[in-house]
Amino acid sequence: MASALINVPAKAKRGDIIEIKTLMSHIMETGYRHTASGEIVPRDIITSFTCRYNGTEIFRADLFPAIAANPFITFFTTATESGRFEFEWIGDRGFSETATASITVE
Amino acid sequence: MHDQSTRRDFIALAGSAAVFAVTLRPAEATPATLAAAIRNVVGAEPVKTGKVKLDVPPLVENGNTVPMTVSVAHPMAPEDHVVSIHVLNEKNPQPNISNFYLGPHAGRAQVSTRIRLADSQKIVAIAKLSDGSFWSASVEVVVTLAACTEDVI
After folding, report:
1. By the CB < 8 Å criterion, does A36 face chain B?
2. For residue A42, which of A29, A23, A27, A26 has the smallest C-alpha distance?
3. ipTM score here?
């Protein structure tokens, strides 16, 4: 169901500052909308996003209903060594997704 | 003739009212919820203006997806860096938009995402530095189509 799009440069020079772009498909239901019959649509959002670089946490975000559907987050990091980026999204109703990307640092 | 004089009177009155409103408006028209949310982030520390750059289009057609970029003009050295960036708003149902936690590893303190805005309002970004100081920037955004609270069909 859920799918992630990750954009990490495949190669970088040691010490380069690289941009990481992530997108996770998710409805991000705010919990403030009503149906035609007046019932509140229950909240269903991603609450937390984490990125680890070879096991070390380099970026974390707390998300609130004010984040648009399909949360798109970009940030920067310094390329220090070849390895793997791990991405994790955690949300309401037991939502939990992970994705990985690898980088070669020369 | 009588009509015209009333119209003129009205315009004069409206003009003076507008001037009055502008002069009366305080420098920080921060509603209580936003002020409370800022206190939640910074505690008792003073918040200085500067360093932070909050990039949001000033006129937004669709409040459901508004591109936003926050950057902090500060070095990212291990001994002196940006620890976190907090984005808050004035008139959405909740004052928080998001919190971003960075480290010296980030290289550049810049984050982009897409947000929702329920009304024309002020958005505030606050950056926490490793020395414990807080810096902020705010922008006024005009939204023509609001998000969050519309009915589901």
Report:
1. yes
2. A29
3. 0.91
Token couple for B25:
């408006």
- Residue A95 has which token pair? 């939502």
Chain A: give the shortest CA distance to residue B98, in Å. Answer: 5
Structure confidence by residue, pLDDT tens digits, A53-83: 999 999 999 999 999 999 999 999 999 999 9
Q: How many CB pairs under 8 A join A and B?
A: 110
**What predicted TM-score, i.e. pTM, was given to this entire model?**
0.82
- Model pLDDT for residues B37-60, shown as the tens digit of each residue: 999 889 888 999 999 999 999 999
Instruction: Check residue B23 and give its pLDDT.
Output: 38
Pick the CATH number of B31-145 from 2.40.160.60, 2.60.40.2470, 1.10.3720.10, 2.60.34.10: 2.60.40.2470
Q: Would you say the C-alpha torsion B129, A58, A28, A22 has a positive or negative sign?
A: positive
Q: Is residue A71 part of a domain?
A: yes
CATH number of A54's domain = 2.60.40.10
